[in-house]
Amino acid sequence: MLSGVMLLGTMAFTSCSEDETFDVDGANTNAIFFTPTQKTVQENLIYNTPAGVFGNVAGSFTVKSQYPLGSNLSVSAVADNTLVEEFNKKNGSFDKVYKELPASVLSAAKISATSISAGSQNGEASITVEIPSDVCSALTDEWYVLPLQMQIGTADKGSSSYTPELRNEYTTVYATIHNDMKNFIYTSGNFTQNAVIVQTPVGTFGNIDKEFTVGVRANNDAKFIIQAEVDNSAIAAYNDNNGTEYAQLPDEVLEVLEITDGVIEAGETTTSTKVRVYAAEEAVAELDGEYLLPLKLTFVYPNGTKTQIQYAYVVVKTMESLINDDAQAVPGVQQNPRNMSNTWKLVSSDNFTVSTWSNMFASSVSSRYFGYSGPAETATCVIDLGDVHKVSAFAVYSYVCQNFDVELSEDGENWTSLGSTSGHKSLYTGSQYWFSLYGAVSGRYMRITSHLDQSSFYWQYLAYGTYYARYCGLARFNVAYDD
Asked: What gap in Å lies between CA 320 and CA 201, rounded to an integer?
């Protein structure tokens, strides 16, 4: 028992020694590590093309010490390819296997050092790695990784009680490289576009005038050309794949087509001069049917290397409606119906409630309607616009109407059809649904035939008075003039 007591006393005495090796309060080291809150894997994207390498390989990693240092300490990193296999186990896949950098690239890698000043915990700068673009031409595989293992300079603890040493974790970082050559070239927008040729009694409207945008993911000072040429041999495959029966454009149209190659200027990433195909209105005036114009696009690098990219297609259709489904704005000057009560007159009507005509000029757009008298197959009215105008668009809407047929006449006897709204797109401007025309048509009288849905739920509102009856009428009528 006495010897046991003596042993405990000896242990207590030893723990108070000035020798830090026996400090029972914890380790006597100051851990140096890469900041844990940053990404340990930094990704780099390059494009190794026949015109050179685009994109940069650069990583930046901050360092830190666990406690303020007692003296200045230099910190650096070295490449450690022994870690590549382990990295692939954690981050690779069957289609993504990271390779070691070739010796020629690895030797050109510039790895910077930094330092942590005495009394500080943070590095004065980041440890960086940079690989010049010109040596990256040797990177022909898709995935690479550069593991970086931290190193510290002379471990002088200075005035600190702790000796600086590498931490067991957070001392390895990785710079990965993705050579994404297959996605260097891209196309933007719709590469199947419609050109509508509208033939009417007042003339032919529409032409072939379409543009296509091609881009690159990165560019420094290279200039690229995108060549375009008609390839009618692609029509059969297009028809088979899409269940269509488009014909080839007649030779007389093909002969006058103007095709402009695309250009991506130095420093730009998209076509400043887009691929364009054009044929004037008079060149397509005699078309009748549906046609396909396939354009084979070839990408040309500055050194002359060529690669075929996707086809661009123009579907050319002829029709007899004046309504422009691709209108982005309402052409002409939109009228204000609230000011037209003394100008617009009702000439005739069938299956309308004439007493509601005055509601067409209400100050509120949502209150404007000319009420139908009840369920029927059609309801027709003729409106006198007060003078001959060049009508460029019209607005019609109804809860109980399946579609409208709209016609114009200068004398009230000879009519020009603007078309049926069925199957056409209206342009909603926030208060009205507009149907824009390809070209303005002269007329003073507008005849509107409403094809009514007799089973519509909204007919019940006729029994609830004026406010609800607006659901059962020609609503929000307006016209735009191109005078």
From this structure: 9
DSSP notation for 126-148: -EEEEE-GGGGGG--SSEEEEEE
Q: Are 63 and 125 in contact (CB under 8 A)?
A: no
Q: Supply φ then ψ for residue 164, to 5 degrees.
A: -70, 130
Report whether 452 contacts 401 (CB < 8 A).
yes
Residues in the chain: 483
How do beta strands 192-200 and 306-319 pair?
parallel
> What is the pLDDT confidence band of residue 202, given thresholds at 50, 70 and 90?
low
Sign of the CA dihedral running 153, 125, 108, 100: positive
CA distance 96 to 87: 12
Please report, rounded to a whole number, the percentage of residues in the chain having pLDDT higher than 70: 94
Q: Which residues contact 371 (CB under 8 A, 6 or more apart)?
A: 352, 353, 356, 359, 462, 469, 470, 472, 473
23 phi/psi in degrees, rounded to 5: -70, 110
| Beta bridge mates, 362 | none
Return the pLDDT at 25: 52
Contact between 208 and 278 (Cβ < 8 Å): yes
Structure tokens given for 218: 């990165």
> Above 50 in pLDDT, residue 10?
no
pLDDT interval class at 393 (50, 70, 90):
very high
Residue 349 in this model has a pLDDT that exceeds 90: yes
CB 384 within 8 A of CB 445: yes
φ and ψ of 9, to 5 deg: -65, -40
**pLDDT tens digits, 61-112:** 999 999 999 999 999 999 999 999 999 999 999 999 999 999 999 999 999 9
Burial of 424 (0-12, 13-18, 19+ CB in 10 A): middle
- Report strand pairing: 192-200 vs 203-205: antiparallel
Tokens of 458: 């909204």
Its sign, for the CA torsion 219, 222, 223, 228, is: negative
List 29's β-bridge partners, or say none. Answer: 163
Neighbouring CB atoms inside 10 A of 236's CB total 12
Q: Which two tokens stand for residue 63?
A: 């360092």
pLDDT tens across 110-165, in order?
999 999 999 999 999 999 999 999 999 999 999 999 999 999 998 889 999 999 99
**H or E element in which residue 90 lies:** helix 84-91
Q: Is the pTM of this model over 0.85?
A: no
Helix and strand element counts for the chain (H, E): 6, 32
> How far apart (Å, rounded) are the C-alpha atoms in residues 442 and 390?
4
CA distance 451 to 377: 6
